[in-house]
Write a structure and sequence with these properties.
Radius of gyration: 34 Å
Order of helices and strands: HHHHHHEHHEEHEHEE
Number of domains: 2
Strand order of the largest sheet: 2-3-1-4-5-6
Oligomer: single chain
Number of strands: 6
Strand content: 5-15%
Mean pLDDT: 88
Shape: elongated
Structural class: alpha+beta
Distance between the termini: 48 Å
Length: 358
């Protein structure tokens, strides 16, 4: 499984569960307080407690039915913001309402994240300043002393800054995790030296192509390519030269196939090319093209002119029962090309190209 997708899914499940838990707890408490206020005959207070509870719980039901986290996050945040402003306006019980605003602020920033959290905090701060410092507002019931107002605003902003810093660090941590996961995932799927796919990745791609073939009859072919006398080159000119040649070959092969095709370093100096939606006749033409591409590589670092050649074996899934047999048949064709003189393409036991190699 892709670790990034795995991490994202885990984060999504965690957010879903936390939204559900926080929303349910908050909604139940608000309903309880609202019903208690209703029993005491405090109808305005009851209405302003029950309304956000209904909004929050309703958004959770919508989130659960649609599996869309946005409904839960936004619905609960809207209910919390409404309750925040109501507590500032009314003062709550004996002027203690603003004390609940701290927990509501933390809840909103947690649900909305860094960017939206900044916008919500800014909006609530401006509204709080207006409600507290503009005199004689017709709907502002509570009265606060200047000392309380200034200290509340200061402590509110301090908590907001800390909450937003936490959200920033959490977002940064998640981004770093995704980056590291992406790097590890890429490293597990690519060859360190050449940068093309490795054997593990190619096996996964072959499995996918075989699934398409079995379901839709979408044919594909493979080319097994091996560099001729590569051990001799390594022994004669050093492994550094050999590595440079492998990198150059991988680069040329990748540049001369379609974007839907894939190149993998199968092992040593052997490469496997996967050609999607390609029959045997088409694959033979591609193999011949790649043979010429490799033969065109020259090294100016050698004391004398030195060319690199390759032998290629071709097979299509049309003539194989499984992916394993497909690879084995392509490998057999490759060794027939080697035994037949190298620097040639072999498919169905027939030489499709030849070149004299000393």
């Amino acid at each position: 499984m892709d670790p990034i997708m795995d991490f994202s899914e885990a984060e999504r499940k965690r957010s879903y569960q936390l939204n559900l838990l926080i929303g349910l707890i908050g909604g139940v408490f608000l309903l309880a307080f609202g019903i208690n206020a209703l029993v005491d005959g405090k109808f305005l207070l009851a209405a302003n407690l029950i309304l956000p509870a209904v909004v929050g719980l309703g958004s959770l039901l919508l989130m659960r039915s649609t599996i869309d986290l946005r409904y839960g996050k936004n619905g609960v945040s809207l209910a919390a913001s409404y309750l925040f402003l109501y507590l500032i306006i009314s003062g709550g019980v004996e002027g203690t309402g603003p004390l609940w605003c701290y927990s509501l602020l933390a809840l909103i920033t947690f649900l909305q994240g860094l960017r939206r959290g900044i916008c919500v905090v800014a909006g609530l701060t401006v509204l709080t300043l207006l409600l507290m410092f503009i005199p004689n507002l017709p709907f502002a019931i509570a009265e606060y002393s200047i000392l309380f107002k200034t200290r509340f605003i200061a402590s509110f902003l301090a908590l907001a800054i800390m909450a937003l810093i936490y959200e920033y660090l959490r977002a940064e941590s998640q981004a770093r995790y995704r980056l590291i996961s992406s790097q590890f995932d890429k490293a597990s799927r690519t060859d360190d030296l050449t940068g093309v796919a490795n054997r593990r990745e190619m096996n996964a791609l072959l499995k996918m192509e075989y699934g398409k073939f079995m379901r839709y009859g979408q044919t594909f072919s493979v080319i097994m390519l091996d560099l001729d006398r590569f051990k001799h080159l390594n022994d004669s000119f050093g492994h550094g030269f050999g590595d440079r040649m492998l990198i150059e070959v991988a680069s040329r092969l990748s540049a001369n196939i379609r974007q839907t095709d894939h190149v993998a370093r199968w092992g040593g100096e052997e490469f496997l090319i996967l050609l999607s939606q390609t029959n045997l006749a088409q694959a033979i033409k591609v193999a011949e093209k790649l043979r010429l591409v490799v033969a065109d590589i020259e090294s100016g670092e050698l004391p004398r002119r030195q060319t690199i050649t390759a032998s290629l074996g071709v097979q299509s899934i049309e003539y194989a029962e499984t992916v394993e047999s497909l690879i084995n048949q392509a490998d057999d064709r490759l060794y027939q090309a080697k035994n037949g003189g190298r620097n040639r393409v072999v498919a169905q036991n027939v030489y499709h190209s030849e070149a004299n190699v000393d």
